[in-house]
Amino acid sequence: MKLCDAHCHLHFESLTPWLPEALETAKGAGLAAAVVNGTRQGDWAQVTAFCSRENWVLPAYGIHPWHAAGRGGAWEKELNALLEASPSASVGEIGLDLWIEGHDLADQTVLFRRQLAIAREHRRPATVHCVRAWEPLRQCLKKEAAPDCGFLIHAFAGSEDLIPFFAECGAYFSFSPSFLAEKRQNRRQAFRRIPRKRILIETDAPDLGPPPELNPYPLTDAWTGKPLNHPANLRLSLEWLAAVLELSEEETAGLTTGNWRRLFGSGDFGPSE
Ligand SMILES: [Zn+2]
Q1: C-alpha 236 – ligand 1 centre gap (Å)
Q2: Do the Cβ atoms of 243 and 192 come closer than 8 Å?
Q3: Domain ranges of the chain
Q4: Which of 85, 86, 171, 261 is deepest in the core (most CB within 10 A)?
């Protein structure tokens, strides 16, 4: 079974002490390809370094809304140069977040729309983070067209009623191990409403892990003692998504891997069938 992680941050330093064992375990659980997302100018070089070491992953470069205020004046030039240098790179993680303290929605919107336009100009997919900003995201997509090749709303937690609009705009939606929490049953059930050809699985590792009692791969941040999401938890996303869709795990793996390849794996990249 070959599984593709649609969204993660395997380059984050908190995972470094656990690599390469964690990647061996994840590959044993089926992990065959992944999109590794930068979150700010300061980590783009780490994304590049990680992806050149691990040739089975694809890079994504973007400025996360949490880091909007910290961007430097040359960000746009730098992002364009990275996309030109790497034909398999996409744009992410970008988006809108009204949960984070001190958010500046107007500034986040300017940055998000510009990054979406850059993805469109380079004909690359984009990966979108959206927390408590569903109506602003809808408004942005009405004004700023998404790339023709599509975009991902990672860990989709929006209202079911918005699914048709986002799908019409070219959205794919990924299922996260964080949806396994009891209180997030409605997040899981929403995936029954998503067109099958637009469903992906992700980990967001080392962030957004499953509840501890359901976590077969516990991992701890060596510096802070906080739990980390193990890259092998992609298997949990697969198993729980399969149950939600009432498909076998093999069928769900085939479906999500095919969708991943269509969105991210242009050319020869990605696991063979
Ligand atoms: Zn992320």
Answers
A1: 17
A2: no
A3: 3-263
A4: 171
pTM of the model: 0.96
**Spacing, Cα 243 to ligand 1 middle (Å):** 24
Tell me the DSSP string of 208-232: SPPPGGG-SS-EE-TTT--EE--GG
Please tell me the distance between residue 273's alpha carbon and the centre of ligand 1 in angstroms.
27
Q: Can you read off the two tokens belonging to residue 87?
A: 């034909």
Cα–ligand 1 centroid distance for 93 (angstroms)? 6
Query: Which helix (H) or strand (E) covers residue 163, if one does?
Result: helix 163-168
SS3 235: helix
**How remote is the CA of residue 7 from the centroid of ligand 1, in Å?**
6
* Ligand 1 center from residue 257 Cα (angstroms): 19
Residues 159-200 pLDDT 10s: 999 999 999 999 999 999 999 999 999 999 999 999 999 999
Pairwise pLDDT comparison (265 vs 152), residue with the higher score: 152
In CATH, what class is 3-263? alpha beta
